[in-house]
Write a structure and sequence with these properties.
With 284 residues, the protein is of the alpha/beta class. 45% of the residues lie in helices and 15% in strands. Strands 3-2-1-4-5-6-7-8 form an 8-stranded mixed sheet, sandwiched between helices. Strand 7 and strand 8 form a beta hairpin. The longest helix is centred in the middle third of the chain and has 23 residues. This is carbonyl reductase (NADPH).
């Protein structure tokens, strides 16, 4: 068969951690009629991940991708278009988090974290959404930290955040947050002091806006919290394995054609988590 007959899945930031487990599970579930791509910033790490995955009995492919680089994102888009004529599954897993004991100034943490987790995820969407084929599935890795951030925000900001928001309004909100972090006025604006939490509020609101805006034949966009997973990002403190963390993203990436729900939702352990202020909120 010609390569273009293959269906294609791309997982960003997948040379290790949850992304690595998502690639492995997709390969196992989707089988040989799919080309499943490991991507990473670093070619050598990508090659290493590929050989580890082959040892685990699966045969993904590799393409370099640094979501912070427009040039790198454009190169992947051109490659997918030229090789396969499109894309069937996109899992936006790449992201960063400063450690709790980081001494980096909050302004820097806000700028860098929002730049990668929000703006670079959006950069990938802008480049790859035009390639989505009928029945495509998109999954953004979000976090229950977004719920925590909402519940710690001022009542005024909570009201704003829980109204339907256009993508342009979400962008403005993220720009505002970074500007305030630089000016030292984050708390006056009603935001909690968490760059990672606010970046994931951005991803969640982006998901809601995209699910309303993106037109196509049965294209389904959702986001999810993988849970607290034992990865480099959590300094290996999380109780969940990477495979447990991969479960909900893989479930959303493989939703069957014509599904009516979940669409444009945030899920945790395969269940929809409403975007609402919860007076009795407990962080999972």
């Amino acid at each position: 068969a010609m390569a273009s007959a293959l269906k294609v899945a791309v997982v960003t930031g997948s040379n290790k951690g949850i992304g690595f487990a998502i690639v492995e599970q997709l390969c196992k579930q989707l089988g040989s009629s799919w080309a499943v791509y490991v991507t990473s910033r670093d070619e050598a790490r990508g090659a290493d991940a590929l050989s580890q995955l082959k040892q685990r009995g699966v045969e993904p492919r590799f393409h370099q991708l640094d979501i912070d680089s427009q040039e790198s994102v454009d190169r992947l888009a051109a490659y997918l278009k030229g090789t396969y004529g499109g894309l069937d599954i996109l899992v936006n897993n790449a992201g960063i988090a400063y450690k709790g004991d980081s001494t980096a100034p909050f302004a820097e943490q806000a700028e860098v974290t929002i730049a990668t987790n929000f703006w670079s995820t959006l950069r990938v969407c802008d480049a790859l959404f035009p390639l989505l084929k009928p029945h495509a599935r998109v999954v953004h890795l979000c976090s229950s930290v977004s719920d925590m951030a909402l519940n710690k925000a001022s009542p005024e900001l909570q009201k704003k955040l829980t109204q339907p928001m256009s993508l342009d309004e979400v962008k403005q909100l993220m720009s505002d947050f970074v500007a305030r972090a630089k000016a030292g006025t984050v708390q006056e604006a009603g935001w909690p002091q968490t760059a990672y939490g606010v970046s994931k509020v951005g991803v969640r609101l982006m998901t809601y806006a995209q699910a309303r805006d993106v037109k196509g034949d049965d294209i389904v966009i959702n986001c999810c919290c993988p849970g607290y997973v034992d990865t480099d990002m959590t300094s290996h403190k999380g109780p969940k394995t990477i495979y447990e963390g991969a479960d909900t993203p893989v479930y959303l990436a493989t939703l069957p054609p014509g599904i009516k729900q979940p669409i444009g939702e945030h899920l945790y352990e395969r269940k929809v988590v409403p975007w609402a202020v919860k007076p009795d909120f407990k962080f999972v």
